[in-house]
């Protein structure tokens, strides 16, 4: 970043509770880079108005834009690291059953001793499963894995979630309500029609990971098995979930919100996702490109806008970063503080790299109340099967959890289609 474009004064860093100093410093650097970005972009726009493009200005703008992205990525990583809950540090008293389960699971993970877990299974079938299918992890580990996935998975952090004990969650809803009307105090009342019900089904599909460790390290009592397992599976689970929640086809995986039929919002009906056209094929419109974003916002009903988020990948966000309103103010703004989200037209922006890049007819921007619109279903229980034979000298841990997902309210999510109409 060029030093001459840095316009903010250096001020003492103010730290917030729970936010590391490095994150505050990085956030300050990103704010400075954004000021330089605005100044350089304004120079580019001025030159374009004079019809005299300057390649140096374009190169400089691209470098600053890349610097903002790099600082945002680093800030995300530090914020995520500070948000991850720590395992093994809880000193609160546990129930005797929970402590017994924890000790038995630790013995199974370290040395393959399944006797303790088998005894627990005999006492309470809900605690464990047979050795062929693995054993259920203690509740503390399952809970912390869920918290870590929420911190790292972009869609899970804003979507609705429900834990179930069966393989399928069925949610009833009314397609037609009972007949109603206004009547006078003494007018006769005719019998009203009964409501018509339908239901949505959300099957929980199996998601697996297979981390490996050496037997020698597992025998080391200083190694926190709980922490190691959670760290190993969080990234791979989050990556697979993130893709499925966006583009999953519903076959052996959740159905992503972009996999439903997209129709022009003027022709929207239940079961489809309404879209707003960007105004140009594979791009925003050449003039007033932000108008399509405004149309997307107001395609959503007022009750959903209060908790709405934009969802796009980093490359699309780089495109909208250049947009201004009629008063010359930039529509995209960096996070107001370390640990926050960038905003677009005052609505938070969630970066989901599984969202498609801008291309002809792509659905690259989504906007909606995902807490009401998209439901993630977690089957209770995370299972681990220890395998010391397949990859000697490593011990494999076949870890599975069941996850489902799909749209539960088709009124709550809208998308932008990059097409002329």
Describe the structure.
By secondary structure, the chain is α+β, with helices and mostly antiparallel strands. It folds into two domains: 69 residues; 270 residues, 2-Layer Sandwich (Major capsid protein gp5 fold). The strands form four sheets. Strands 7-8-18-15-11-14-13-12 form an eight-stranded mixed sheet. Strands 1, 2, 5, 6, 16 and 17 form a six-stranded mixed sheet that branches. A hairpin with a 2-residue loop joins strand 9 and strand 10. The longest helix has 29 residues. It is flat. The two termini are 39 Å apart. The N terminus is likely disordered.
* Biggest sheet character: 8 strands, mixed
Can you say what the CATH homologous superfamily of the largest domain is? Major capsid protein gp5
Briefly note the CATH topology name of the largest domain: Major capsid protein gp5 fold
- What separation lies between the terminal Cα atoms? 39 Å
Question: Which class do the helix and strand fractions yield?
Answer: alpha+beta
Mass-distribution shape: flat
- Oligomeric state as shown: single chain
Give the radius of gyration: 26 Å
CATH class of the largest domain: Alpha Beta
Mean model confidence by pLDDT: 81
> Helical residue percent?
25-40%
The CATH architecture term of the largest domain is 2-Layer Sandwich
Q: Major sheet: order of its strands?
A: 7-8-18-15-11-14-13-12
The ordered string of helix (H) and strand (E) elements is: HHHHEHEEEEEHHEEEEHHEHEEEEHEEE
